[in-house]
Structure formats: structure tokens, C-alpha cells
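Internal ticket #5521
Category: modeling
Description: The requester needs a full-assembly model to guide mutagenesis choices. All entity lines are attached below as received. Residue total reported by intake: 1280.
Assigned to: D.W.
Attached entities:
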Amino acid sequence: MNRSTGFGWQALRRGQVTIQDGFWQRWRDLIGETTLAHEFEELRADGHLDAMLLDRRMHRGRALADPWAEAGYWGGSVFWDSDLAKWLEVASARLEQTRDPALEAHVDEIIGLFEQAQRPDGYVNSHILTWRPHHRFKNLRDLHELYCAGHLIEAAVVHSEATGQDRLLQVARRFADHLVARFGREPGQIRGYCGHPEVELALLRLYDATEERQYLDLWRYFINERGQSPNFFEQEAAARLDLRPFRQNHPGSPYAYMQAHEPVRAQTKVVGHAVRAMYLFAAAAWLALEDGDDELLATCERIWQDVTKSKLYITGGIGSASENEGFTRDYDLPNENAYAETCASIGLFLFGHRLLQARLHSQYGDIMELALYNNILSGISLDGRSFFYENPLASHGSHRRVRWPWWCPCCPPNLARLISSLSGFLYSEKGQSIAIHHYVNSEARKDGFTLRVRTGLPYAGNNTIEVQTEAPVETTLFFRIPGWATQHTMTINGAEVTPRVEHGYAMIQRPWASGDRIELNFDLPIRMKFCRFEVEANRGRVALTRGPLVYCLEQVDNGADLDALTLPPDADFAPEERPDLPDGMLGLVGSGFREQVRDDGLYADEPAAAQPTTVRALPYYAWGNREPGEMQVWIRRAVR
Amino acid sequence: MNRSTGFGWQALRRGQVTIQDGFWQRWRDLIGETTLAHEFEELRADGHLDAMLLDRRMHRGRALADPWAEAGYWGGSVFWDSDLAKWLEVASARLEQTRDPALEAHVDEIIGLFEQAQRPDGYVNSHILTWRPHHRFKNLRDLHELYCAGHLIEAAVVHSEATGQDRLLQVARRFADHLVARFGREPGQIRGYCGHPEVELALLRLYDATEERQYLDLWRYFINERGQSPNFFEQEAAARLDLRPFRQNHPGSPYAYMQAHEPVRAQTKVVGHAVRAMYLFAAAAWLALEDGDDELLATCERIWQDVTKSKLYITGGIGSASENEGFTRDYDLPNENAYAETCASIGLFLFGHRLLQARLHSQYGDIMELALYNNILSGISLDGRSFFYENPLASHGSHRRVRWPWWCPCCPPNLARLISSLSGFLYSEKGQSIAIHHYVNSEARKDGFTLRVRTGLPYAGNNTIEVQTEAPVETTLFFRIPGWATQHTMTINGAEVTPRVEHGYAMIQRPWASGDRIELNFDLPIRMKFCRFEVEANRGRVALTRGPLVYCLEQVDNGADLDALTLPPDADFAPEERPDLPDGMLGLVGSGFREQVRDDGLYADEPAAAQPTTVRALPYYAWGNREPGEMQVWIRRAVR
């Protein structure tokens, strides 16, 4: 990327990085071997594939027999094509790793459906073509056509890179070319943009893959046009004679939900639907880098600071409210009814990754890592077959949650997509420098220079980095020192070094030769974290963390009434092996108190007694995988 | 009462008890001098009086010009007649105390409107007659006709007792006779009952005033018919061709809201709308006493225990949810969004008072007192001109509340009604015994025997009871020892006595002579109260009480961010005079800590520092009378 300006860093691509064994390869294998097949069955059962079939008359017939038909709701959701596309993307990445003829057949089947559904002008969207053919590009506010196009394009780029085939890429390019023709400021074009940002991210990937400037131009147009006045969605609604009031009860602008309340560059506080906001700002940050656009980059940085300083759960979740699946006011971070959608944290991860290319600073990697190991990974069960769409920080009483085998199909394939593309987020290069952002067992290659990383993370702080190089070469290596590491030590070929650390990155500049070996060890003590006062739900409470992991209590380990447990300031916790669980998981075990439940009336003159008790915590991502029961992250501090 | 059976105690009536000066007379005067006039103006401004005018064609004309007209909503609420009736009741009680020609004229004006509106058959309801004449007794579920009839009857009884005039009583009896003719199990009668219990309470008052058994019979019919199967409201809806689903999303039975989900005697847990439930069970308890019906009394006692053991705020509020203005599950007592309607606590007060006549036990008086001094009295401002309909236990951030000059007109006149009739709730008699339930400056007379009570309550624990009697007489006096009194001492004519205490009542049996003087002193220390664990909102928190009063913190005394204040277990509080406020009010002052608000990011490795600070508390009833700001009852305990 950044072809035009050379501004900033460039992420090493999927082709340059191979993830190998260890924590994340286990997850990638699980997704490839189990989740993909499970999701394929769910997509089939949901009717996603039916919806793509050519004989749409049959569907219409069923629709007429159905009371929802008039509203056009039968035939599934407006975003079903995107779910299929996300699945294709994950499946393609899997095929890159391993031959799987059955999977390949499924992939080709779905690609065939897209091919058959595509119109001669390039347009394809099974929901619109089947159910609302007259609504084509008539309701960008609600109908997700460009969002679906975006996921199709992204899947096509990955499919092409992963398999070397261009069948799906042909479909995607025809569609993208259609979008280029139809959208813009020229006469006869639609001067609009999608209610759900995503196509912007796709266009930059397509530009990256094809180097066709028309995709860059359309991407830039979408970023700059969004939120301009007069409001496009109002004009569009009037044009289709839809005079119903829109989101009248929505706090603030009704268009904040779709990031169309004001131009991107005018935004100072993050608002609206969290996924939409993050996708937009990730794409905007990428554009800022591409164009060397400092003003746009400053906007993105301002939004990042706003999200991470006042609207971020300790688990890396964002978007606390279910009403708008999004942001509310500063510090409004309830635990039990946290929305914290898995996809929103994925968006935050993508956004942070872009800002990281502009400025090497560990805050971006810290928050990407926080989101990844906690709010994102909690979205999938340890067996790869069930999911959380929302990621609350407490679950008990009337708010008790369990994982769903499917539910809203948006998050499961999106999470699988992120994990299957993780290799593209670990390293960056810039001139003769390579930066390691995330420690994952992997091999990174650049111009005959190879880094081989082995790590104990997330459960141990030891990292080994081995260099292989065709010829000795002067290269600067940057190593992110995570914010949670109270101390770090480094040796090179056994000799201790004390590298300069700047903005959270340790820097070693020297000629490297094959066999050079860096040992980088992080202390990862168990920590009690205390929340800012403004967050009402966490007053008088602590959370336990170790390294990148946030921990939680579960009923199955601690008994019911988790909120009766309290921790004194000197609570002594130690890691504890959990051979009953995968990942080489370490729990925490320590001592606290359990408030006794009284039975002497509602209000008493004495506090309830508290008995010393053992308290066991598990990584947050692992909750909800055993007997259903209570869970909580923020634990009461013992009172005096 | 209890003419037929002589079962239980009998409350001394309004005519036997005179409240004189002191705390409650100040409130009665404020209501008589200020609130009544304010409410009259609000009723006029709201159109209550317009709705009673005879020229209804004018109203219909306005309705047709109004978009709500089709739904029949213009012309005000279905319960407006009841608001006028409540006002009449308060005004009548005022006229008993003092001549006020202007007030008398208003009273006569409204009585005239009722007279003019009444149909020859006795029916009167200005809303139905004006707006829905064809709906007369066609929708008892929703239209509050019998509820309005009930308040009219109650007002008429009080007006007759207070003024000796029977104009309004004539109207009420004609209406009541119409109800007797129209409702029941005979052919041609409506086998139904009102969606909002109230007429049951009115019928017993009318029976009490007139000794006409037909009113007792109708009252008994309503209690016994309610909730029988098949459900009357379903049949009624079908009869008017209303096939819309009813309260489908309501948890549990859709008819719990109007106490029609099952027969009264089958109920074991209190459910539904809190005011409706309390009015019903107060009337049922009264009937149980009247009929000597042990089964019904046991039902009432079971419901009382359920309410007070698991659904009662520390302020005496009940009905925590706004969705149904009522009850949810056990221990669901949120503070900020507590509904705790003023009228619901009034209903609880009435219910407790009835059970108290069945069984002399201090729990009833304790809870009546708790409701009266806290959740009920908080419903009116110190200047008598603004009101709380809901009575939350915390107010800050997005839930901040302020008093309303009117809002829903149900509570303000109902609260005024209770306070103006308070004399009827203080004493009971049974044979040669008199029980004092509530210590209020007052004189109680029975058969030439007079008790004159002077009290320091609610701010001091000293009580003096003087006897006047025409001839020395052997009488047993029962004195309630409040649950909050850690100690009590009694002297008779200066000599210390140690009376036997049973079920919370001290008992002195002896011959009394004029001039006998009992001094009864209660300790009323400042107490920290701790809540049962199950109430999530109060974990790690304490409330401050003194005597019958619950205290709260207000921003105007303590600064913003009240929830940053914490109290150690040994927090030393003392009473503090508040000459800036009426009632001889005592606040509390003590020491606590204030958690410092950090500005170092959302999550930190160290807890925020806490500084010692002075904490000031005020009686809960007095909150919301100065600068608007935060308030909270449950204060965080200091953590260690």
C-alpha cells in the first residue's frame, strides 16, 4: 500500500507471513476443520443458498403464502449475500493452507451461484434481485447493497490470492466496475453511499490487488461524500416517496447510526452504530495513508482517542448499547447488558491496525491485542460451533446468556474471517525496517530476510525471534513492548541488550546474519485493574488480568451468586493449569471472601458476614463453554 | 366496623380523633392552604372542569378537529372524575377544620357539575358520557368507570361527615344503587368488575356510613367474582368485538395487571400493578374482618408478607417497575429507575391498616409509618406545590428527576387525601381497650375517655399521653413500640413502669383517672442499614436511618458525584439542626471519604485515592426541594 506517497508503514501481506502451530494455529485449524462446515450447514439451513438459486419464482410463491411477504421480509435478510461472501473468504484462506476437495466443491458451488445471479451489467444481490427488484439502488440507507458488494469483493480478492483462480474475482470486478459507473458526482450517477460502510474497505483491497485507480477514486469519493449536506438519505427517501419519519426517537441525529450525520472530517466524537463507525474510520485511515492526507488522519486519530479513552470495555469491547448497536455517552459501560458486538471489536482491530501504519505506537497494538484475545475471541466457543454476538461482562439473573449455534449470522463468519487472515496484521515494514506488532508463532519474509517467531503468549511471556537471511543485512527491527509488560528483557545471541524504547517499541538496528537469535521476555504478572469513577457499573470493583488476557469468574468454578464474592486489596492470585480446557489454558486461583446470604428480612442493622473462600478465574474468552451459569468480570472489592 | 362479627379491632373514626398542631398539622395546613388551591387550578387548566360541563357538543366538535379524536383520547383521561372526587374529599376534610367560603364555593361548584352530569338512572362519568356514550359499562377492563365511581362515593362519605350536607352523598348513593342493580350474578346483570380496584374500598365506606347491606353485598360480590374463570375481560372484549391481542408481551398472565388473573383467594404472590393490588387487598382484608372470613384473611396476610419481605424499598415504596407500574420478581429493587409510585405506598398503608385491625402486631404499624414518612411524603414538595409520582432512591446522570407541578394527576390529590384523613389511622379500639398505633399530636375520644398525645416524632423520641375521663375507668392501653426503637422507657405519673410487650405493643391495664400522664420515650439512634444480598443495586452499600425516617444525600449539600462518597463501618453521624428547612427538620452530619476522580485512562493499576470528607444527609421526604441535583439513599461502603 501507500504506493503513491510512501507515507507510513506497510503491513506485511498474507503471502509474506505464515502462521505456524501454537495458540493461533489451533484456532485456525478449529475454524477450518469445524466452524467452516458448521457455518455452511447453518447457511444452508437458514436458506442463504436457496436465496441464491435461480428459480426465484418458487420463492415468490412461498412469500405470497407468508404473512411477512408483503413487507418483503421472507427470503431472508438484506445482508445474506455478505454472510455467504464472508464464508467464502474464510474457506478460501483455508484452502490456501490445506487441500480439502469437499470444501473446494462447496466454494465452487457458491461461486457458481454468484455467477448465475449476476446481471449482465455486473449487479448482483440475491435478496434485491429476488425480492425487491425495483428497489435496486433505491434505498442505500437500509438495504445493504454496497455492504454486500464489499464483502463479495473482499472474498474475491482473498479467493484469488489464496487459490490463484480468478472466477470470483471476475464477478467482483464486474460488480465493482458497475459501482464505479453508477456512483459519483457526474451527471447520471447516484450521489450516494451505503448506510453500512464496508465497500470502502473492499475497494481499497481491490485497488491493492489490481492497482486500478478507479477503485481508489470511488473509495475516496465514498469517504468524502458521506454526511455532506443536503443529506443523501433524506433525498433518497423522498425520491422513493417514503415519507415516514426516520428514527425520530434516536438520540442526536437520526443519521448518526449510519455515519451520515456529518462529513467524516467534521467528526470529533464517535457516535452511532459501532461496526459502521469502525469500518468507516478504518477505511478513512487507510485512505489518509494512501493519499498522505494529514487532515483526514488527524480526524481518525481524534476518533480513536475518543473510543479508546472513554468508550472501551476492559475486554476491548465497544458499542455498549443494544438500541443502536453502538455508542452512547462517555463512560456508559454497563456490564450485564453490554452490547459489545464481536464485529465492533473486529472493526476496532482493523482501525487500530491502520493507524499503526501511520505511527508506530504501542497503544494501537495494545488495543488490537486486547480486542483480539478478549471481546473478539469470546465470540466463538472453544469447540468452534457456537457464538456470542454480544459480549457482556456479566451474566446472571434475568440477563443470563448462553452461546448460540448461529443467531444473527453476521459475527460468526466475520470472526472466522479475521482469524483466518491474522497473518496480515502481525508485521509491518518500512524501508529497511521491520516491526513486530503481535507475537504469534509465525514466519515473516521480506526480500530474502526471514524472521521466525516463537512465543509463549498469551500464557507465558517468553518470545524467541530467529533470523534467516540470504546475506547479512543491516535491518532495524522494532519490537512492540506491550503495555501490560511490567518488565522486559532482551538478549541477542545470549548477550543481554537494552534497546532504546520509543512509543512502546524497542528498536535494534544492526547487521543481522542467519541464525541470529533474539530472546525477548515479558513479565506478565496478575494484575488487579481499577476503573475510572465515571463508569457507574464498576464502582468498588476490580478486574483481574494477566498479560493480554482479561479474566472472569464463572459459576461452574465458584458456585452461584458470583457477586457475593469479594476481593481484598492483597488478594493473592496465582496461575493455575487447566488441563480440562484447551489452549494450554491457565486459570487464576486466589483467596477472597464470600458474603453470606442472610434470611432475616430485607434490611438489617448488621452487614452480612463474609467467609474466606477460594476464587477461581478463567480467561474471559473461554467463558460459556461448560455448564451454563453466571459469569462476571468486575468483582466486588471487600468492604470494611 | 365489624358490626356483624365483632372480629378484631376497630379504628377510631375521623370524628373521634382530632389532629392538633405539630408535624402533621403543619402538613395538613399546607395542603389546606396551598395544595388544594394549586390542585384546583391545575384541574381547571387540565380541562377537568370543562369535561364536566353540560355542553358536550362543544367538546365533540373540538375532538373531531383533533387527530386523537378517533381514538377517543381528547377530552382527557378516563380517570378525570376520580381526580375531581379526590380533590372534593380533601377539600371537604379541610372545611371540617376551618371555614373557607371560597373553598366552599369551589366544592359546591364541582358537586353541582356532578349533579348536572348524573343521568336519571344514577350513572355519572363525565368522560364516558361526553366521549364514549356507547361504551358505558362495555369496557370495564380499561375505562375506569367503577374506579371513578369509587372515588366519588368516598368523597361523598367524607363530604357528608365533614359538612353535614348530603348533596354529594345523594349523587353517590344514586350511583351506588345503580351499581347494585347492574352488577352481580342475577340474570340481566353484568357479571364483571373493574380493571382498577377501588370501588370495593368505597362500598365498604358507604356501608359503614349507611349500614345498607346491599353495599356490603356488592363489595363482597366484587371481591369474590374477580379473577374467576372464564375471564370476564376476555368475554367482555369479545362482546364488543375487540379481538386485538391483550398485553401479549406482559410477563405472566396479561390480566395480572388488573388483578384478574386468578381469584383473590388463590393468590400467593403479589403481582401486577401495585396500586391495583394494594387497593384490592386492603378491601379484601376489610371484608375478611367484616365477614369473619379466616380464609380470605389468610390470603391477605400471605400477600402482605410477600410484599413486605421481598418487594419493599427501604423507603416504603413498592412496585419497582415502570412497565406495569408494579411488581416484578422478588428482590428486584433498582434505585435509579425505581417506580415506587406514591399511590402504591398509600395503598400499602391502607392495606397494613386493615390487617392491623385483625391482629395487633407492630409490623403493620412499622411499615405504614415507613411508607408514610418516606415514600408517601416525598410525593409532595415542602411548599405543597409540586409532586413526585415516582419515588426513585437515586437520581443522577441520565436518570435525574425533578418534581413536577402536576404531571399525572392521580397521586397529588391522593396524597392530600391520605394526609387529610390521617386521624382515622392512628388509634383502634376493642371492647375496653385502646391501641395507639402512630404517635401524632392529637386527641382521641371514646365514650367519655380521652387520650391527648404529644410527640417529638419524627425527630425526637419523647411521647406524652394524658388521660381525661369523666369517671375513673379500667381500660387497657396498647402502645406500639416501633421496630426502630432500640430501647424504650415508660413512666406513669412519674413512676417508671415496665409494661409487658407482646407483638410489638406495650400493654398497660389499670384504672385510669383524669390527669394521668404517661411518658413513653423511644431511643432513635442513627442507624446504618444493610440490604439483603439479593438486591443487586445495594450490594456494598448502606443506608442511613433515624427513627421512622430514611435519609438521603443531596448534591446541594455534598457536591456532585454523590456516588464517589463512601462510608466506613465506624462512620460517626450526628443529628444536625436545619433551620433552613421546615418541620424542625434534623439532618445528619458525619464523616466519610470521597473517591478522587482520576484522569489517567479508563483502567488503572491502582485504586483511586480517597480523601476524608464531611457527609450530610437529609430526610428522604425532603429531597428535591432546593437546587436540582443528584440524590441517593444507598451509599457505598468504603472498600479496603
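Resolution: model delivered.
Comment from assignee: Residues 527-637 of chain B form one domain.
Ticket closed.
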